[in-house]
Amino acid sequence: MEFVRPKIVISKCLGFAACYYSGQIFNIKFIDKLGEFVEFKPVCPELEIGLGVPRPTIRIVKDKEEIRLIQPKTKEDLTKKMNDFSEKFLNKFDYIDGFIFKSRSPSCGFKDIKVYPSLNGMVINKEGVGLFAKKAMNVYPKAVVESEGRLNNLRLREHFLSKLYTLAEFRTIENNKSMQDLVKYHTRHKYLFMAYNQNILNELGNITANHANKKEQEVYSLYEKKLQEIFLKPPTYKSIINVLSHIYGYFKNKLSKNEKKFFIDIVEKYRDNKVNLAVPIHLLRAWIIEYDVSYLKEQSFINPFPKELVDLTDSGKNNDRL
Ligand code: SF4
């Protein structure tokens, strides 16, 4: 399976330079590995607006209704510099598939950032968004966004990667707007979409069938809207197990009693959070090869992103049960 190479803007302190305000660099095994399969565009917005390393901290201040980026020690208001740089930097790309932001930063953090009432006051809430991250999400509202902290959770990581690679592939067929490409794309992702949301899968199927004979442009734009919707939330365990059972149904009659028992045990272990999704998928993949089911070989559900990115030995935690 050949995967597109998504283009990702990433906070530079996540392994590219020791540019954090304290002079730190954060080396993360998963991000290092990911670099082999994506095109990273590292950036440190605070360095770019002229702040040095190390530097006094900066913070988001809510001044009346306005959000400002201030360095308390120097009292410098950096809002305009940061907004101007962000706009210029972000607009130089023809497309961006995703962002990986450093969490808790008043520049890069994409959620839950501390907001202060003044230069010296206490935090009023943790609902702020870093100024650079905010601009990034405005300029590229369809891009996939995550922080390095949340990517430690294996379930969120799998969701991030599935969404990233599926949407990046859609971008590559979107230029030509061929109905044939769309049918192929939809067929290939059928089980993945089923795991995410059966109702939206049906709607996507209807859009692709195009019974109303709409123009390609309109079909693609309807499809893309639904595609964004289907990826709003990670799939539930229940719906993933439903898809595993569907695929298992292709072989059920060919398997021995012991093989069937083995599969059912593994699915139960997955349900009980004792093994990762890669384990039952690996078993299904072996049967897909053995029984040569070409329709399943093409399914992204069993191969949604480069398999090298599933590393069960790293620090990721599969601790978030839905
Ligand atoms: S969080 Fe962003 S602004 Fe801060 S050091 Fe990292 S890249 Fe630079």
SSE topology:
Blueprint (H helix, E strand, L loop, with lengths): L6 E5 L17 H6 L4 E5 L1 H4 L10 E5 L2 E6 L4 E2 L1 H12 L7 E4 L11 E4 L8 E4 L2 H9 L4 E4 L6 H21 L4 H10 L1 H7 L1 H12 L6 H15 L6 H12 L8 H15 L6 H13 L3 H4 L25
Parallel strand pairs: 1-2, 1-6, 3-7, 6-9
Antiparallel strand pairs: 3-4, 4-5, 7-8
Helix pairs in contact: 3-4, 6-8, 7-8, 7-10, 8-9
Iron/sulfur cluster binds next to helix 2.
Could you give the distance between the termini? 30 Å
| Ions, cofactors and other bound molecules | iron/sulfur cluster
Mean of all residue-level pLDDT scores: 94
Give the % helix. Answer: 40-55%
> How many β-strand runs?
9
Overall number of domains: 2
Secondary structural class: alpha/beta
- What spatial form do the alpha-carbon principal axes imply? globular
Continuous helix count: 13
Main sheet attributes: strand count, strand direction, barrel closure: 5 strands, mixed
Order of adjacent strands in the largest pleated sheet: 5-4-3-7-8
Order of helices and strands: EHEHEEEHEEEHEHHHHHHHHH
Brief descriptors of the model:
alpha/beta, binds iron/sulfur cluster, 5-stranded mixed sheet, globular, 4-stranded parallel sheet, 322 residues, single chain
